[in-house]
Automatic annotation (TrEMBL):
It comes from the Eukaryota. The lineage of its organism: Eukaryota, Fungi, Dikarya, Ascomycota, Pezizomycotina. Belongs to the flavin monoamine oxidase family. Coiled coil: none annotated. This is Amine oxidase.
């Protein structure tokens, strides 16, 4: 049965669209739908985009065989078991992240420093000691943090920059810490709550694990077919007699009723030229919000969401986080002894990584212009942005002429212009003073409305693993709320 005919059947069943409506067909929404369908509940997924996958978004540039990840890109096999299991289930080919060769630091004055992967950059002796100190202090505080306890007022009322200044005044160490928040959240250390950043790191096992490109780390494995393959694969596993997906369907309002929810939608305008579905209303017993929290402000809720939810929705924010992938004829950086990892205090890209697909003879450097330097870069025209990053690549690998000869094309996605991601990526974050005040409401249901999404996860927040786990959590909430026996799934 096709998904269209299935949606019609669900719409006509007992005058309900489904047992559960899921807003958003990214990994969290798809994960929830799969778990609910396993328990015999029907699900209708409403997706505003003309594709499924959310922040898993993979495209092949013209003339290139391989699909390039414009959004989420990495997993690991040891402590991201949901994602790894899904990758195996859908037959994804895995690529180990390259860490063979030197890392490059582009210092504040533009000079290059090279060093082995896993070591501290070759600053002067005092700066190296202070960079190690702030790294170790952050790691210690991550590891001893109870992620479910948001009542740490001292840490929540200061920025991560303030937290770092309590432990060091060394400028190189402070710039290094600011690079962590830029690379991981697109935020300046002056803008994010210290408690939120520590909690974010704790969800991934600590700062060191979350930043690692090696086994057990956050950036260890990639998907040859692109990570959107995980989303389309998961969608294909949904039973067609229980689940349907409607694309180009924007949820505009949600009204709670005595026996469930009533959801109004409108058609999403697209550039494809195809006719979107007509605006309509659906009803269900339960609703799952599987969109970024910042998107909740675009939906009219009746009755209104409680104040803590509204405060979170208005406070969660992105700064600037963009990916630009540059494709070359050969992996010239590898031939020159570099692993492809670059850390930069100057930008425009704060971080670069080798995201090549050797089996396809596709050689790629993924660059991350983010934070303040990324915001300035975004103000340039498309060609100027490309040229600025190419010049930076030439500088950091001391290979300006080679870059010009080897460059083929680039592909990117400006997540700050992506309305349905909440205009940002990879994960929303909070400024000081919010998490301790209303963080306890983050995962709390509101009547028949339940909240998923990677930012609600307590394990691997901001990653695909967190999204999948959040879907499982809300599915279990709904099963129990409907009086069904829990699955006792670990």
């Amino acid at each position: 049965m096709s998904k269209t005919s299935n949606a019609t059947r669900l719409d006509n069943a007992e005058s309900l669209s489904a047992d559960v409506i899921v807003v958003g067909a990214g990994l969290s929404g798809l994960s929830a739908a799969r778990e609910l369908s396993r328990r015999g509940l029907s699900c209708l997924l409403l997706e505003a985009r003309d594709r499924i996958g959310g922040k898993t978004y993979s495209k092949a540039p013209p003339g290139i065989v391989s699909k390039i990840d414009l959004g989420a890109a990495w997993i690991n096999a040891s402590n991201q078991e949901r994602t790894y299991r899904l990758a195996r289930e859908v037959g994804a080919d895995l690529i180990e992240q390259n860490t063979s060769g030197s890392v490059v630091l582009q210092d504040i004055d533009g000079t290059r420093k090279t060093f082995p992967y896993g070591e501290i950059p070759p600053f002067d002796e005092e700066s190296r000691a202070q960079a190690a100190h702030i790294r170790d202090q952050t790691e210690l505080d991550c590891q001893t943090l109870d992620i479910n306890n948001t009542q740490h007022p001292e840490r929540d009322n200061m920025t991560f920059a303030d937290y770092c200044r309590k432990h060091t005044t060394n400028e190189a160490a402070l710039r290094t810490a600011n690079m962590w928040t830029r690379a991981m959240l697109g935020q300046e250390a002056t803008d994010v709550s210290a408690l939120y950043f520590l909690s974010y790191c704790r969800s991934g096992g600590g700062l060191l694990r979350m930043r690692s490109d090696q086994e057990h780390g956050g950036q260890y494995l990639r998907i040859r077919q692109g990570t959107q393959y995980l989303s389309t694969g998961l969608a294909s596993l949904l039973p067609t007699d229980k689940c349907a997906i409607k694309l180009k369907t924007r949820v505009t309002s949600v009204q709670q009723t005595s026996d469930g929810v009533s959801v109004s939608t409108s058609a999403t305008a697209t550039a494809s030229g195809s006719d979107p579905p007509a605006a309509t209303t659906y009803r269900a017993k339960k609703l799952i919000s599987a969109v970024p929290y910042s998107m909740l402000t675009s939906i009219a809720f009746q009755p209104q969401l409680p104040d803590p939810k509204n405060i979170l929705a208005k406070s969660f924010n992105y700064n600037s986080y963009t990916k630009l992938m540059l494709i070359f004829r050969t992996p010239f950086w590898q031939k020159r002894g570099y692993c492809g990892l670059v850390q930069s205090f100057t930008g425009p890209a704060t971080i670069m990584r080798d995201t090549s697909i050797p089996a396809d003879n596709t050689w790629v450097l993924t660059t991350f212009p983010c934070g303040t330097s990324g915001r300035a870069w975004q103000a340039l025209g498309r060609k100027e942005r490309e040229q600025a990053v190419l010049e930076q690549i030439g500088q950091v690998f001391d290979a300006a002429d080679i870059v010009k000869e080897e460059f083929i094309t680039s592909i990117g996605h400006d997540w700050n212009e992506d309305e349905f991601s909440g205009r940002g990526c990879p994960c929303v974050s909070l400024p000081p003073g919010v998490l301790g005040r209303v963080g306890g409401a983050l995962r709390e249901p509101v009547g028949n409305i339940h909240f998923a999404g990677t930012e609600t996860a307590v394990v691997w927040k901001g990653y695909m693993e967190g999204a999948l786990r959040s879907g499982e959590r809300v599915a279990e909430e709904i099963v129990e709320a409907l009086g069904m026996a829990p699955s006792h799934k670990i």
